[in-house]
Amino acid sequence: MVAKIIDGKAISEKMRAGLAKEVSNLVRHMPKPGLAVIVVGDDPASHVYVRSKAKQTIEVGMESFEYQLPASASEHQLLDLVATLNNDERVDGILVQLPLPHHINAEKVLRAIAPAKDVDGFHPLNVGLVATGSGGMVPCTPLGSMILIKSVRDNIAGLNAVIVGRSNIVGKPMAQLLLQESCTVTIAHSRTADLPAVVGAADILVAAVGRPEMVRGTWVKPGSVVIDVGINRVAAPDGKSKLVGDVAFGECLDRAAAITPVPGGVGPMTISCLLQNTLRAATARRA
Ligand SMILES: NC(=O)C1=CN([C@@H]2O[C@H](COP(=O)(O)OP(=O)(O)OC[C@H]3O[C@@H](n4cnc5c(N)ncnc54)[C@H](OP(=O)(O)O)[C@@H]3O)[C@@H](O)[C@H]2O)C=CC1
Ligand SMILES: Nc1nc(=O)c2c([nH]1)NC[C@@H]1CN(c3ccc(C(=O)N[C@@H](CCC(=O)O)C(=O)O)cc3)C=[N+]21
Ligand SMILES: [Mg+2]
């Protein structure tokens, strides 16, 4: 078997072309949808993401507002800025880039974002709505991963889905979406006994661990769909660095039915889903 490589970059570009059309229709009768992104501190990786988010936001015809606070910014300052943006009519979506510096309580900040503007889907109200299948803003990375799964499998009901990783931003919401689609869902984590055996039962595998190429090809069930969420920067032979996922991609090519690459898989989908959530927030809020 030769795995189909799922082209997240191409699918995300198509999504944005569709969003751009919708936005151009919308702005005939309302102001441009706006996305505000707040970064605290000067982590270079965060800046790369935030720049590319801003660029793509503008490309689909929306307004981008960027806020940079120093690493020394207080929790109070950040909460103040969130409150200002909650009340800013031009702003439909608010994203606070994670992780935050340790002296800031991230949970408190996420709860301060107006749920209607919570385009990350991290506010407890949206987490609850998604968990009960009652709507709510769906977190971007799981949403994008689900679109990639659907691009290769029409009906996933009854399939065994295994997620490695139980974070609030990827693993847990991914489990909710797969359960909603009637998969039999297993969530594995650092305390899981015999991870290779658990992974080996997966018809759909989602790896969201943050450990370069931890999932080996021999673990993967033949014929499965492999979604690699991991983004890990590692040293390359040429002395530079490169991105690799949480899955040993090359080892899976003759086992999996389909697999996402890193880069060019889930990452670009995350940003397109963020823009989709922003458009959704704008239409809902201004209706
Ligand atoms: N493509 C994209 O758009 C995005 C990519 N990412 C990437 O996805 C990866 C995961 O991110 P995130 O969810 O935030 O990470 P976290 O660090 O929050 O969570 C990692 C999870 O992996 C589990 N884990 C760690 N080591 C092992 C192990 N040896 N065996 C099994 N499970 C293990 C942890 O278990 P435990 O809970 O027991 O500690 C934890 O649940 C990262 O590489 C990140 O960069 C993240 C967000 C978006
Ligand atoms: N509040 C919040 N929401 C997030 O959604 C969020 C966050 N904080 N903090 C950081 C993580 C990570 N994340 C990525 C988004 C896009 C790519 C992406 O586009 N990656 C490209 C490669 C980019 C490169 O070359 O560095 C790819 O995989 O092809 C990666 C990672 C969103 N996150
Ligand atoms: Mg997101």
From TrEMBL:
Entry superkingdom: Bacteria
GO molecular function terms attached to this record: methenyltetrahydrofolate cyclohydrolase activity; methylenetetrahydrofolate dehydrogenase (NADP+) activity
Catalysed reaction equations from the record: (6R)-5,10-methenyltetrahydrofolate + H2O = (6R)-10-formyltetrahydrofolate + H(+); (6R)-5,10-methylene-5,6,7,8-tetrahydrofolate + NADP(+) = (6R)-5,10-methenyltetrahydrofolate + NADPH
Family matches, as PROSITE patterns = THF_DHG_CYH_1, THF_DHG_CYH_2
Family classification: Belongs to the tetrahydrofolate dehydrogenase/cyclohydrolase family.
Q: Any idea what this protein is called?
A: Bifunctional protein FolD
GO BP terms: namely: L-histidine biosynthetic process; methionine biosynthetic process; purine nucleotide biosynthetic process; tetrahydrofolate interconversion
Q: Which Pfam families match?
A: THF_DHG_CYH, THF_DHG_CYH_C
Q: In which pathway does it act?
A: One-carbon metabolism; tetrahydrofolate interconversion
Residue ranges of domain Tetrahydrofolate dehydrogenase/cyclohydrolase NAD(P)-binding in the record: 139-284
Its quaternary organisation is: Homodimer.
Alphabetically list the UniProt keywords.
Answer: Amino-acid biosynthesis, Histidine biosynthesis, Hydrolase, Methionine biosynthesis, Multifunctional enzyme, NADP, One-carbon metabolism, Oxidoreductase, Purine biosynthesis
Summarizing the function annotation, the protein's role is: Catalyzes the oxidation of 5,10-methylenetetrahydrofolate to 5,10-methenyltetrahydrofolate and then the hydrolysis of 5,10-methenyltetrahydrofolate to 10-formyltetrahydrofolate.
Cellular component, GO annotation: cytosol
EC identifiers of the protein: 1.5.1.5, 3.5.4.9
Record-annotated residues binding NADP(+)? 165-167, 231
Classification via PANTHER family: C-1-TETRAHYDROFOLATE SYNTHASE, CYTOPLASMIC, C-1-TETRAHYDROFOLATE SYNTHASE, CYTOPLASMIC-RELATED
Record domain Tetrahydrofolate dehydrogenase/cyclohydrolase catalytic: where: 6-120
Spell out the InterPro entries in the cross-references. Answer: Aminoacid_DH-like_N_sf, NAD(P)-bd_dom_sf, THF_DH/CycHdrlase, THF_DH/CycHdrlase_cat_dom, THF_DH/CycHdrlase_CS, THF_DH/CycHdrlase_NAD-bd_dom
